[in-house]
Amino acid sequence: MMARVGIERRPLRFADAALAAWIAILATVTVYGAATTEGFLTVSNMKAILTAASFVGIIAVGLTVIVLSGNLFSLALGQTAAISAMVFLYSLRWGLVAAILFTLVLGLAIGAVQGFAVGAWGANPIIVTIGAAGLMEGMAVWLSHGQSIVPPVDETSWEHLANPVLGLPAPVYVFIAVTVVLAVVMARTRFGRQIYLLGENRTAARAAALPITLLTVGAFGIASLYTAGSGILIGATSANASLLLVGSYTYDAIAAALVGGNAVTGGRGSIARTAAGAIFIATISDMLLLRGYSTGAQILVRGIIVVVVVVLTNLKERTR
Amino acid sequence: MVLEVEGLSKSFGPVRAVRSLSLDVRAGEVHAVCGHNGAGKSTLVKTLVGLVRPDEGVIRFEGEELSLRNPQDAQSHGIALVNQELSLVPELSVEDNVYLGGVDVPLLYRRRRLSEGAREVLDQLGLRHVQLGTPVETLSIGERQLVEIARLLVRDARLLILDEPTATLSKPEIERVFRATRDLVAQGRSVIFVSHRLDEVFELCDRVTVLRDGQRVATHEIQEIDRRSLIEHMLGEMEGVKTMQEHEHAVPGADDTIVRIEGLTVPGSVDGVSLALERGIITGLAGQVGSGTSTILRALGGLVPSATGTVEVQGKRVLLNTPRRAAAAGVLYVPNDRQREGLFLGQAVERNLTVSRLRRLSRLGVLLRRRIRRTARELATMTGVSLERLGSPAGSLSGGNQQKVLLGRALQLEGTALLALDEPTRGVDVGGRAEIHNLVREAARTGTAVIFSSTELDEVLDLADVVVTIFHGRIVSVVPRADASASAILADMTTTQAASRSAAS
């Protein structure tokens, strides 16, 4: 997963070696775990891992655009996913296509507004997104009267979104497709290039007359659009949406981006890294689950992995 | 010998920054290190203070062989670096800055004893008038430099390395730093002086070592060498003489005004500046640090929202309140601080070269990668940046090459009406400077107007077709190059008489 570092700096040798050692340890543990955990190396378990990785993975790759643009994170992802699921199930009464489009447009708009506040006014992204999260929760409770949203009884078209296609659940295909699309966008388009430059040095981006507001709106818009897309799949899978769905999506997505080794400060990293991070976390969680560890232990292990990777990538970035 | 360096080598990937370099510094001397950009000066300096570990070689200081792990380590041995970028905390007092991060300041320190120590050192450096409690931000840049030195002296630095110490200083401030340096040397300390300014080398130093391509070319007693042969050492045989030659200057007055500035004012900095800039003419703003030259250019680039006054580009009035508006109107600002505001240091040179023209290098938002590559190659060839480095991060280039990349991104852009270059050769050596000047002349020849700021007389005289001197945010004089004399410009740049004269007129 670390095979291609987009741009080589002269690294501190220690940090490099440590990172390589760490990856080796993780790989060994994974392989060992895979070999010794009963039921791990089965087709159905692989499917389970991929499915589990999909929902978070879609959110995480979208979030990566924000990370690369140097705007840290969005802390409103869980809320965006949950209300997208609610909006989707509610608007199914107007038909499947309309519901999908409406939810996606709403998601895009929610993100764009946050991006505008950050890009045009220089507001702190963490604070803006926490505020947005609160607003969304309030709106959701108010409009739904605290009730769960369920799809209309006579409408079943949405079930396709959760059903397996050629043996794999539909969200897995969506995850793969949107990851590839975004990876291409970031690598091959002017927008992608400018996001990297903005994340590398905001002051220089301003002096070089890059469209900072537009880029920031785009970054938050994409993250939110992807989150809404994941929300649709989450809603379709659970057939019942409430704010309980907020869960830990925000933190899981951030963890995936960090474990993938994207620079927290922006400018360096890639979509592929985040996707790999999401799959990796899902693999470890799955393995712990199969071995009978508690949810607490799973969260703990995930936390440790995130911390170590962040420290090591940071050391590596602090090169000269 | 206080310091002996033998057989020092250091490579960064394929780049051999320093090759079996040897150097010795005597006790009580100022030893200059000169060289073209990329000659290995900064690698040498970084090695001496533990920022870079050499691949090979021995560093012996006061007879002891050193293997330095970090700058603290170097400091504890008595070797200290005074950086171009000062590391003081502006909000803290002079005294706090002097002791900040000190290794041997005890947890429960006795304020009085420290104060006396700081006072003594400051007096020694000619900062008798500076109170210990004064916040550093209220000091001039030259004074800050001296506080930085004071900070090293209380740590008993016996070898001080001054890296381009005068780049941002005014003449009287330079004098003060020099005086302090001479005093230090008289006490038996040693100084390594890294500078591009040859005048200063001759004025201050006892010996000079010239580096080229990571190797030592020569070491001379300063009396034994003259300016011309020093430059020849630095440049090698190829272009030594070329850089000394006089250039033809375009003559303004063709009434081909492309940019008209009226009453440009920035509160506290620029005061009613009006200028007409012609196609193909290079206008040089000569002024000292803080005179407002830089702010004028920043305002043109749309980076000073508080600026008032009007700017017309090709007859059309433009609001220059954001860099995007300025760029859209054809005004291209090139910042003076390449590290902070100019380059994207962690991104590839290719990306840096093409950042301002991505619109034309893409179709429907999709990057045309082959064209990007070709354009980057052309610009790199034109500016003399190695093609092999196009994929390396800009931050891995030497200062002079970074400056070329920064300038290169503004060259050959269609629709440019005005190039505003803020100190285009800051921290660049003689050879690099000549190359950059040629690029600027070439750009002017294609019909754009050019305006640049500089604190250095040599540069203004070499490059400008029209010399505009600025003092305290006001225009003192506007003189065609042919009528400009060094002494008159210097007088206009520095004297308060000039200010009163312009106020009276």
Q: What's the structural blueprint in terms of helices and strands?
A:
The complex is a heterodimer of chains A (320) and B (505).
Chain A: H1 13-36, H2 43-68, H3 77-91, H4 96-121, H5 125-144, E1 164-165, E2 168-169, H6 170-188, H7 190-200, H8 202-207, H9 212-238, H10 249-259, H11 271-290, H12 295-317
Antiparallel strand pairs in A: 1-2
Helix pairs in contact in A: 1-12, 2-6, 2-9, 2-10, 2-11, 3-4, 3-5, 3-9, 3-10, 4-5, 4-9, 6-7, 7-9, 10-11, 10-12, 11-12
Chain B: E1 3-12, E2 15-25, E3 30-35, H1 41-48, E4 56-61, E5 64-66, H2 71-77, E6 79-82, H3 94-99, H4 111-124, H5 141-153, E7 159-163, H6 171-186, E8 190-194, H7 198-204, E9 207-212, E10 215-221, H8 227-235, E11 257-266, E12 270-278, E13 282-286, H9 293-300, E14 308-313, E15 316-318, H10 323-328, E16 331-334, H11 338-342, H12 349-354, E17 362-363, E18 366-367, H13 369-383, H14 399-408, E19 418-422, H15 430-445, E20 449-454, H16 457-463, E21 466-471, E22 474-480, H17 486-494, H18 496-504
Parallel strand pairs in B: 3-8, 3-9, 6-7, 7-8, 13-20, 13-21, 16-19, 19-20
Antiparallel strand pairs in B: 1-2, 1-4, 4-5, 9-10, 11-12, 11-14, 14-15, 17-18, 21-22
Helix pairs in contact in B: 5-6, 13-14, 14-15, 17-18
